[in-house]
Design brief:
With 70 residues, this protein is mainly α. The protein contains one helix and no strands.
Amino acid sequence: YNNDRASFEAPFFVPLPPPAEQHRIVARVDQLMALCDQLETQLTTTQTDSRRLLEAVLRDALQISAVATG
């Protein structure tokens, strides 16, 4: 008697929707993945813009501080 789960094999049935429904699901997943890609690109662009804005504000603040104290 072997109690190892990996050695136990039993029939495993997974019900699948009809082919037309499978194609509809795949098409919808493709649309959603494309949307995710767009959102990721927008997020990266926004992060880059935010970093540049912060750097510009800090640079200006330091220049104003240097002029005020100099």
